[in-house]
Design a protein that fits this description.
The protein is of the alpha+beta class. The chain is built from 10 helices and 9 strands.
Length: 357
């Protein structure tokens, strides 16, 4: 089974995160999945939440997702939910990977997990893979295609996907602010500042719920898969852990928190996980303008959604750092996440000050 050198393949499994491959294989065989031989196992390093492995059998190329070790947010890392969301979306949003099986038997590997077909393609991380370069025109086209795919997701027929019960009804925006505020408090460590001024501003400025649709919750370039023969074309969207029914502008705010521009300062560049800094890439303001033009949505100001996205990212980083701080994970990539959480808090305050002028 050959593959292109530019597609995402994963690397060595991190120490302490080894997978009982024999147990997984036996379980898959018991589900009627035809497999040949023992798989080659690699682990993807891009994600900082769920652990993701590639199982490359002689006749099958599979991805396994499981929760991380250590303390978890109550509603996070629900593998069954993530599996069912993608099952429902696949017929109406073809860029979702094909689901294979979900396991809730904790005796197999010590936690629930699910398995899906691997999508063969390019994942655009902080830098494009060696051998892939984009002209400014291509970089702009990639941006537009990625935003168009988000617009397409936000237009999905919820009933056709069978996902009417995915959300909790009215009050989505306020629930998000309350929920992320509580998570930040529970993940506090001595070296992270209080976010009370940011939280108070968000709670005082929660907008009325707008349109309700399927939202991804973590839509970024490094969660899309690009065609190997055309690195501007989106063929897949990954990581549906946070998908729900909610306000599409909140989803866009989440995405912009990761959108690092070429002119951003040192600390912002430290957060870079996708190639939005390349010549030709849209700025954050251009992304908002293009999305609103395509959807017809016209918020009076995008400041609330921008601050929300940055604050939520600060909480996510702090939750991950909390696990590292308490030695529940050994991944050295998480060592300085507390600095990033503090920086994002400051950035929120700067936007709030600009908004109040």
């Amino acid at each position: 089974m050959t593959e292109s050198s530019i597609t995402d393949r994963g690397g060595a499994v991190r120490s302490g995160e080894e997978l009982d491959v024999g147990a997984v294989t036996n379980w898959l065989l018991a589900q009627g999945i035809a497999l040949e031989g023992a798989p080659e196992v690699t682990q993807f390093s891009g994600g900082a939440s769920n652990w993701t492995y590639r199982l490359r059998y002689a006749n099958a190329d599979l991805i396994l997702r499981r929760p991380p070790a250590g303390t978890k947010a109550k509603s996070a890392h629900d593998m069954g939910r993530e599996f069912r969301v993608q099952q429902g979306l696949k017929p109406v949003f073809p860029q979702v990977p094909e689901m294979v099986a979900y396991c809730q038997d904790l005796s197999i590997i010590g936690d629930e997990f699910y398995v899906m077909q691997r999508l063969e393609g390019i994942i655009p991380r902080a830098r494009m893979p060696r051998g892939v370069s984009l002209t400014p025109t291509q970089a702009r086209q990639l941006c537009l295609n990625v935003i168009d795919k988000l617009v397409e997701l936000h237009r999905v027929d919820v009933e056709a996907a069978g996902l009417q019960k995915l959300g909790k009804g009215n009050g989505y925006c306020r629930r998000q602010i309350d929920g992320w505020s509580e998570r930040f408090a529970k993940a506090a460590t001595w070296n992270v500042w209080s976010a009370r001024p940011v939280v108070n501003w968000l709670k005082a400025n929660v907008p009325e719920d707008g349109a309700s649709c399927v939202i991804h919750g973590d839509y970024r370039l490094d969660n899309v898969v690009l065609a190997p023969d055309d690195p501007t074309r989106v063929i897949g969207v990954l990581d549906w852990e946070m998908a729900t029914l909610g306000d599409p502008l909140m989803d866009l705010g989440n995405s912009l928190a990761y959108w690092i521009e070429a002119g951003d300062g040192y600390f912002m560049q430290m957060l870079r996980r996708q190639p939005t800094w390349l010549p030709g890439m849209l700025t954050r303001r251009e992304v908002v303008a293009y999305y609103c033009e395509k959807t017809g949505l016209k918020p009076a100001s995008f400041a609330f959604y921008e601050v929300y996205g940055l604050f939520r990212l600060a909480v996510i980083l702090q939750q991950i750092y909390y696990r590292y701080h308490h030695k529940q994970t050994r991944n050295p990539a998480f060592k300085r996440f507390w600095l990033m959480s503090n920086y994002l808090n400051l950035r929120c305050l700067r936007i709030i000050r600009e908004q109040s002028r």
